[in-house]
Structure formats: C-alpha cells, structure tokens
Amino acid sequence: MNIDSLLQPLQHFGVNLGLSRIVKLLANLGNPHDRISVIHVAGTNGKGSVCAYLSSVLTEAGYRTGRYISPHLIDWTERICINEQPISSEELSQLVQTVQAAVSGDDEYPTQFEIITAAAWLYFAQQQIDIAVIEVGLGGRLDATNVCSEPLVTVITSISREHWQQLGPTVADIAREKAGIIKPGCPVVMGSLPTDAEKVVRSRAEELQSPIFTPQPALQISPGWAEYQTLQYPLPLQGQIQLTNSALALATLEILQQKGWKISQSAIINGMGNTKWPGRMQWLIWHNHKLLIDGAHNPAAAQVLRNYIDSLNNQNVTWIMGMLSTKEHSKIFQALLRTGDKLYLVPVPDNSSANPTELANLANNIFPGLSFCQTYNDLSSALESAFTDTNNLVVLCGSLYLIGHFLATLNHA
C-alpha cells in the first residue's frame, strides 16, 4: 500500500502533544526504543544540520547509524535513514501497517507523527543499529520522540519564538518545553541561547545533575574549511551559522569519545566533509539559471539567510516566497527584504498557505521601496517571470514545504 494513503488519513488528528499515546503504542510493540543508544536533538533552528553532521560522522566511523528527522522535503522515506540511506517505501508501508495494528481498540488513536515515530523506533530496533540520531518534531517535553530515559547526549541547538501557539508565548516557555528532553545525569550540549532561555535550560540541567557543555563556534579558516579547538575540517554547508552547528556536533562527538565510542579524527574530517542537508542554503541550477534555495520559515532562520546573502556582497535580491499561514510573516519580511528588492509571492501547495495577496500588502506596507511586488498562482510561473530579470541574485524561500514542492518538480522534470 502507498505510504501517503496510509498516513494521509491521520492528518486530521493534527498536532496533539503528549506522551501517553506513544508510550502505550511502543509498549504494545515491545518497547523497541529501549534497545537503542540515542543522541536526542532539539532546537528551533539548526537541529537538522546537527543531525546531518552526527549521522555522517558516525556512519564514517563504522557505526550502523539510524537518523530520524522531520519534516521530509519530498518523500516520507527521507525521515528514517540508516547509514544515510532512506528506508524503502515498501519497508516503511509494512512498518506503518504493523504499528497501526498495534493500536489497542479502546485507546485514543495516535497522531500521524506518533505513528511514523513508532515506525522509526521499530525499524531501528529490528535493524539492530548501533546508535540513533533522533530529531525532536516539535518542542521536546511532550514530543513523541521524548521516550528514551537515558540518551547518550541531548543537544539543544537554538531557541527562538517558533510554534509558540503550541509551546507557549515567551522564549522562556519554549525553552521549558525544549529542556524537557534533558534526562537525569545525561550530558547536555547547548548552543548560544537568549538569556531567558539559557537560564531555564541551565536550571533544568542543574536540577537533574546533567553536565552542560557550551562549545564556542568554530572559526572559518578558508572558504569551506573551519577549525574547532585544534581540529581543521571541511564545512560543506553554507552560512555563518554552520560554524555554530558544526561545533555543537563536534562537542557531541567528543562526549561519545569520552564514553568509549571509537571515532577517529579521519572519520570526523571525512564525515563532516560528506555531510549533505538539502533545501537549506543550497545552490541549484534551474533551467540554466543559478538559484539559491532555503527553508527560512521563521525570523531566526530568515536572519541567518540574510547574513549569508550579505556575505556574498550582492546588490539587490529577487525573492520568490511562499509561507504557511501560521508563521510570523512581517518579522520574516523585516529580516529579509531591502529597499530595491523584487518580491514574487506564491501559495505553498497542499498546506495551510498564507494568502499571497495579503502577503503582498504586508510587504508593501513594511517596504514601500520594493522595486517590484507581485503574486503568482504557482511556483513555476513565478520562477519563469523572476529569471527574465537576471541581474539579481534569485532566492526561493519561506517554507520547507515550498522547497520540497520545488525539489519534487525538479526531480520529475
């Protein structure tokens, strides 16, 4: 059975944070998560690339390495990988059916995310992996991934005001949810957080007697190369923020080494160099034109993208953007747009998209100095139109779902 037809009907359960359903479901499946060594990674931004670095290095070091991430860009199978290879569609369909069959008749039905998370735990246990790198879906404390009682390391990459509708209105509220993945005595690697958020995470770590590590960002030593402590390594992912994200990954690997995991310097250098994390500050060729794509779906990610673009010393930018209705549109525009830029607005297909016309009015109010602002019914017509004016750097951003839609059309072209 097709994986979409299995998982699509579960969408109406929506986001329903809480651990009772996943705990029951995993118990019915024999608690597969208890048989797995885990690195658990939370954060507003950066958690995906930290997971990508860790998974790449651990694979290179010879460990059978599982990785679980969300969302996917093109296909559900991207969420569950072993040694960088996505699960096959057949195996995933099989697992989802096994998981669904394990739901007790009288229990509250699990959400779509809970079903796929349970499938990941089951797959990793069946495949007898050595270690799993698990990315939190949303928040931390009540996220379906938060079922492992003794992770090897927990990582909190960054905290800003994202998903506040579910997690609470302030950065401290959000930090409290993310700090929910910290477990008694298990080391915590923490990125640079706003003061309020850092206080919350530190006090939670102290309460649980969990040692906390706050690595300094790596230093850029030449294009595509960085240095962390005394280690020089290739850095294939773009943007200043990767100096921070890669340092978080390296600090995590250092803790594993201290716990007796065999990770050589060459495994680290090759693993870092081989890291791929598509859809994030990625350069592509579209119909012979250079295009920069990035999810940039919240203000902090938008600022990171803007910093990267500023480092390229481009004059004006042509933006092609679509956003979900739930995002902080004006803050994202404020981070990205500059007077003289051009803005092409599109809907995000198959999702609760912000209305492009409303976005255009908002953008014009914030930046009356835009040299062009127009809405389009679909992405391909916006791309066609944008590239007729080729002097500017063209950037497609605003939603990972939009990026996924673009990459899917690229694959079928």
What topology does this entry show?
Blueprint: H1 3-7, H2 20-28, E1 38-42, H3 47-60, E2 65-68, E3 80-82, E4 85-86, H4 89-101, H5 112-126, E5 131-135, E6 153-156, H6 164-167, H7 171-178, E7 188-190, H8 195-207, E8 212-213, E9 219-222, E10 225-228, E11 231-234, H9 241-258, H10 265-273, E12 282-286, E13 289-294, H11 299-311, E14 317-321, H12 329-336, E15 342-345, H13 356-366, E16 372-375, H14 379-386, E17 393-397, H15 400-412
Parallel strand pairs: 1-5, 1-6, 2-5, 6-7, 7-8, 13-17, 14-15, 14-17, 15-16
Antiparallel strand pairs: 2-3, 3-4, 9-10, 10-11, 12-13
Helix pairs in contact: 2-5, 3-9, 3-10, 4-5, 7-8, 11-12, 12-13
Summarize the structure in short.
This protein has 413 residues and is α/β, with parallel strands linked by helices. It is built from 15 helices and 17 strands. It folds into 2 domains: 3-273, UDP-N-acetylmuramoyl-L-alanine:D-glutamate ligase, CATH 3.40.1190; 282-412, Alpha-Beta Complex (Protein-Tyrosine Phosphatase, Chain A).
CATH architecture of the largest domain: 3-Layer(aba) Sandwich
- Distance N terminus to C terminus? 26 Å
What kind of assembly state do the chains in view correspond to? Answer: single chain
Radius of gyration: 21 Å
CATH topology of the largest domain: UDP-N-acetylmuramoyl-L-alanine:D-glutamate ligase
Domain tally: 2
List unreliable stretches of 5+ residues: none
What is the CATH H-level superfamily of the largest domain? Mur-like, catalytic domain
Fraction of residues in helices? 25-40%
Total strand segments: 17
Largest sheet: 8 strands, mixed
Q: Which strands sit side by side, in order, in the main sheet?
A: 4-3-2-5-1-6-7-8
**Total of DSSP H or I helical runs spanning 4+ residues:** 15
Q: Report the sheet-strand fraction.
A: 15-25%
Gross morphology is globular
CATH class label of the largest domain: Alpha Beta
